[in-house]
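Let's do one together. I've listed all components of the complex below, 573 residues spread over two lines.
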Amino acid sequence: MKTRLSLSFCLAAALVMPSLAFASLGGNIASIQADQVQMKATSRIASTQANYTVHEIQSSSGTVVREYVAANGTVFGVAWNGPVVPNLRQVLGQYFVPFTQATKTQQSDHSHLLIQQSNLVVRASGHMRAFRGTAYVPSMLPQGVTTNEIL
Amino acid sequence: MKYSKGMIMRKPYLIGGMLIVCALLLSGCGGGGSSSNTSSSSSSTGSSAVVNYVPVIVDSGPAAVIAAGYPAVNEPFVSVTICAPADPTNCQTIDHILVDTGSYGLRILSSALSPSLALTQRTDASGNAVTECTTFADGYSWGTIKTANLQIGSETANGLAVQIIGDPNYSSIPESCTGTGPASENTVATFGSNGVIGVGPFAQDCGGACAQSADNDVYYSCASPTSCQPITMSLTQQVQNPVSLFTTDNNGVILSLPAVSGGAISLSGTLTFGIGTESNNGLGNAQIYTINPDTGYITTTYNGASFPDSFLDSGSNGLYFDDSSITQCSDGSGFYCPASTLSLSAVNTGQNGASGSINFTVGNVDTFFDANQSDAVYSQLAGTNGDPASFDWGLPFFYGRNVYTAIQGSSTPGGVGPYFAY
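Okay, and this is what the predicted structure of the assembly comes out as:
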């Protein structure tokens, strides 16, 4: 008799982000689908472009996170928009530590953040109750995709 | 902002001396029917004169900020007086508190407070200390929520919730907080000032989101300094916009700064409390722009394109907007460095349809600061935003204007907030 694996997922003190169809920047969608948990999916495909798909995840805080997924399943860009900043450890994944170690440009202040490195570009802006940001890996951009499309 | 060119070879100032213009620019009368005054402004005895304004200084910031190599530019500061609730004679005046229309609430760096100022730690229903993770675009600030009495001018707010950033007794920061930004801003040097007084258009710092859900990771309950869990926080228990707790003059603020052509070593202006409540804070001929009640956004139209997520932000030190036709500085800083100064214009539109054009100037940031290293004021400072939908009207917009910020839900002669007016 098959026993059903019961997954105990820790209700971490973090923004509740369903791991269904969610991968971090630089990660791959396909690998996540293998461990789908039985959580309510609040993600959807927001749009499909010629060579990438945008997945949108609505969190319980009202913040929306978008993932820009190339044809091969790689998340080459992410964007967030809403009343609170999402858990960037989860959203930036392997790029979170480089994010914390990057040199902020001189433009950075309470309302702006600009990190421009060869392997990571992060732009964050906003004010209390209205935050936005984008992050992408330049080398992962599908051909023909401009950074203006990551919103 | 962190502007530093690194080298410090003094050159003769092209713009000499200190530009001090005492800037109480407001017209004498309230516009459109003044509200009835129940305040003491009509007192003829002179014993309790209303002083609903305080001086604002735009300078390089506190010593620790200058020493860190990042003197402030285009940042408006005021001083606030904080008293212990248990002993109203135990007070301290703290200078260089950033005036910020982009945030809501009073936050002070713990290191700027005297140890003898005994503020009361706020606790939740379980008796646990309440702490808060405040997020900015470039980092996060972690601190305890304490109760204090605030006095600024003759305005008072007693029993005010204040965030004490970098409280040494609560130095362990939960991962849910450290995951919101690239770095902590828990010292005067990293925060950029001794604190911030958020006088933006909302009455609480988090609003309904935190009243309804703990998932926002803003407020925390700490059973011990190393054991903090996110919690909900009702509207009345959140950190409030201190102006909304004044007994009078509590419906908004006016930030007035003189016009600046180019730059200056420093600048003096005024922060006035109340809109249409005294003889010095009427709307005059200011036009009202109502704003998105969730985000505070107005719409800016520039170069034929619409920027629907725009904002008037005194805590931002420049005009930030994307325009690929403007040359960026070669150091990759994100600032603009056009070959010659650009005279540009845009149109702001409120949710109420009110509309008006703004002329502004974009200068070459590198050239300016090479020649004026000690200037803390630069009216032509601009750069990219990174968000094509947003035009951030930072402090240069405030130079030469009286900018009114009306608090959500507050009555004013110009209608109920939230709105900006200028």
